[in-house]
# Entry
Amino acid sequence: MNLKNAFKAGLRDAKSSQPKKYRLNFARDVDTDEPGVLILNLPAGFRFYDELCHTRGFESRAELNDAVKWAVIPCDCPECQRYQGA
Ligand SMILES: [Zn+2]
# Structure
C-alpha cells in the first residue's frame, strides 16, 4: 500500500469510527454457558451508559438486543485504553 492509499484508509477509518457504535458479535461477545442467562461482555472501548460496567447478564435475546441498541456507549476508561492500546 502506498502512502496515499494508507492516508485514505486512515481517513475512512476515522470517519467510520465517528460516532463509534457497538455492533453485536454474538459468537464473540456473548457468554451462554449459564442456562437462562446471556452474558454480554463488551469489547474494549464500550460500556453500558448507566454505570461504568462492561459486562451484563440478560434473560432473553430481545432484552440483549435492546441494550445493544440503546444502552451501549463508547468508553475510554483506563481499562479500555489499556486493552485497546495493546
Ligand atoms: Zn471501559
Observations:
- Residues 47, 54, 75, 77, 79-80 surround zinc ion (CB under 6 Å).
- The radius of gyration is 16 Å.
- The CA atoms of residues 46 and 75 lie 5 Å apart.
